[in-house]
Write a structure and sequence with these properties.
Its EC number is 4.1.2.25. It is an enzyme of class 4 (lyase). This protein has 15 helices and 14 strands. The chain has 434 residues and is α/β, with parallel strands linked by helices. The strands form three sheets. An eight-stranded parallel sheet has the order 6-5-4-3-2-1-8-7. It has a four-stranded antiparallel sheet with strand order 11-12-13-14. Helix 5 links the parallel strand 5 and strand 6. Helix 1 packs across helix 2 and helix 2 runs parallel beside helix 3.
């Protein structure tokens, strides 16, 4: 399974939090009973969550680590029950043994707040499971408690960039697939309020990176302090509206996912961002053309904490390309064929600033590249087709530094009513060269 299998076409994924703990900072003890945790997860899904993040160990300031056996005892029954109900889950753990047990129970993603650094076996376990993974930034000498503020060398944005790159390289060297990696800047983990705001301001930079981005700001103290600053009552639970504001902005910019406690209001925020980005293409809940991916709108100039004005990459979108192909695992699909819809998003240098044709791509040629492959030789998996389109386009158009290809299969042989089936392939110049 790749991250693309978890990606929600057209909008940011909403990850609902279920803490099966006694001491989490905002809801500790509420879901420590397995049945209560499962019921809460169902409620979050009914409220609009796409995935449930199940954790059995608190990382709040001052928290004491629980034994591995206890952590496993807390999370595995919940994950197993949700998996049997068809609910996607991630396991929030820093332990390889717990990740392995969760994988056996049917978990869909490993979410490690240490970025894989807390357990020397974690990267190999991630690779062995073949699951998507989230690597979070947390600069600390003692994983387990988020207390204290780390020294980020005076530039938290640069430090987080460089640290996440190292964590990703460690995972890749251990055998984790590039397409299985999501990164998280680690808001609130050994970071001052100023650090957290600097990272949020720099989200456009992170969104230009080669890995999808998860944003986890839910109920963090720096958001609760917004109310304190104006003399209003403040608590983690009262930070949900501020969380929704961060969710909306992150989603509008193109974050892959947001991790939240209160799903209902954040799902509204995500849907507003999707409608906002789609503009006139928004169709009230159906899949809209013009779906977005990592990256903000091209040509925008963003002032960052790196102390300079950085022109962001232009983004070209080709959406709704209709093709007819013979791909699928069933003989009938290979014999009679079916329609496919292709969306292509390309990132390149800011051609619009200089009105330079040599710094862009020919839209018709891009469409031909995609159509020729989709309408070409039969493949069992549309994942293979999407990857071939992405790699061929990167080779054909040297100006591109990243591409995302989404292939929709609207007539997939599924004996139920459904809106869409799609796969997403991402490629970047840096990784193809490496």
């Amino acid at each position: 399974m790749a991250v693309s299998n978890l990606t929600v076409p057209g909008r940011t994924l909403v990850m609902g939090i279920v803490n099966v703990t006694e001491d989490s900072f905002s809801d500790g003890g509420r879901w420590i009973n397995v049945d209560d945790a499962i019921a809460h997860a169902r409620h979050l899904v009914a409220s609009g969550a796409d995935m449930i993040d199940v954790g059995g160990e608190s990382t709040r300031p001052g928290a004491v680590r629980v034994a591995a056996e206890e952590e496993e005892h807390r999370v595995v029954p919940v994950i197993k029950a949700l998996h049997e109900e068809g609910i996607k889950t991630s396991v929030d753990t820093m332990r390889a043994s717990v990740a392995t047990a969760a994988a056996e129970a049917g978990v869909d993603m490993i979410n490690d707040v240490s970025g894989g650094a807390a357990d020397p076996e974690m990267y190999h376990t991630m690779a062995a499971t073949g699951l998507p993974v989230c690597l979070m930034h947390w600069r600390t000498v003692q994983f387990g408690s988020a207390a204290g503020v780390a020294d980020h060398g005076g530039d938290v944005v640069r430090d987080v960039h460089e640290s996440l790159a190292k964590l990703a390289d460690n995972a890749l060297q251990a055998g984790v697939s590039h397409d299985n990696i999501v990164v998280d800047p680690g808001l609130g983990f050994a970071k001052s309020p100023q650090d957290n705001w600097a990272l949020l301001k720099a989200l456009p930079e992170f969104l230009q990176g080669e890995f999808p981005l998860l944003v986890g700001a839910s109920r963090k103290r720096f958001l609760a302090a917004i109310r304190e600053d104006r003399g209003a009552e403040s608590s983690p639970l009262l930070a949900d509206p501020a969380t929704a504001a961060v969710t909306a902005i992150s989603a509008q910019m193109g974050a892959w996912g947001v991790r939240v406690h209160e799903v209902d209001v954040s799902r509204d925020a995500v849907d507003v961002a999707a409608a906002w980005n789609a503009g006139a293409a928004y169709t009230g809940g159906e899949h809209a053309s013009g779906s977005y991916a990592n990256g903000a709108d091209g040509g925008t100039v963003v002032s960052t904490s790196l102390g300079r004005l950085k022109p962001m990459a232009d983004r070209i979108e080709l959406t709704g390309l209709e093709c007819f192909g013979y791909h699928g695992v069933f003989e009938e699909e290979k014999k009679t064929g079916q329609p496919f819809i292709v969306d292509v998003t390309c990132w390149l240098d800011t051609a619009g600033i200089e009105d330079d044709l040599s710094r862009t791509v020919n839209y018709a040629e891009l469409a031909d590249v995609a159509a020729n492959i989709v309408e070409g030789p039969s493949r069992d998996l549309i994942e293979t087709v999407a990857a071939e389109v992405a790699e061929t386009a990167m080779q054909r158009f040297e100006i591109l530094h990243a591409i995302e290809v989404t292939i929709h299969k609207p007539k997939a042989p599924i004996p139920r009513t459904f809106a869409d089936v799609a796969v997403v392939a991402r490629r970047s110049r840096k990784r193809m060269a490496g």
